[in-house]
Specification:
Sufe protein. Chain: A, alpha+beta, binds FE2/S2 (inorganic) cluster, globular
């Protein structure tokens, strides 16, 4: 069952990514790479009245990193900036509904790392991921 869910959610988002693209201009924009493999994710946000009005992601990478970034965009749309900042790794993993082993954890959290770095404006998103 877990394997089936893995295929369904990860592969669905990988093949049909949600909110793929670039926002120009954007209120928050950041990109980073997974140093282990060089895969890249960029996330752009437009915020109105403290809420994420529009979000887009772009980049290239493995199925997990791309699917997780796609899932993440669905999680943040419509949320307040503070709510987005409060999203943690476990929240994202829960949405992915797939067992992610230690070797793939940086794949799954690359988009979240980029998002947090973009919102902090610091350009550093490692924090507690
Ligand atoms: Fe590069 Fe997954 S192998 S992010």
């Amino acid at each position: 069952m877990a394997d089936q869910l893995y295929r369904e959610i990860i592969l669905d988002h990988y093949r049909n990514p949600r909110n793929k693209g670039i926002l120009d201009p954007a209120d928050f924009s950041h990109e980073d790479t997974n140093p282990l493999c060089g895969d890249e994710v960029r996330i752009d946000l437009r915020v109105a009245d403290g809420r994420v009005e529009t979000v887009r992601f772009s980049g290239r990478g493995c199925a997990i990193s791309m699917a997780a970034a796609s899932v993440l965009t669905e999680m943040v749309e419509g949320k307040t900036v503070d709510e987005v900042k409060a999203i943690g790794r476990d929240d994202l993993l829960e949405e992915l509904e797939a067992p992610i082993g230690p070797a793939r954890m940086k794949c799954a959290t690359l988009g979240l790392k980029v998002l947090k770095a973009g919102l902090s404006g610091a350009g550093q998103g490692d924090e507690d991921l």
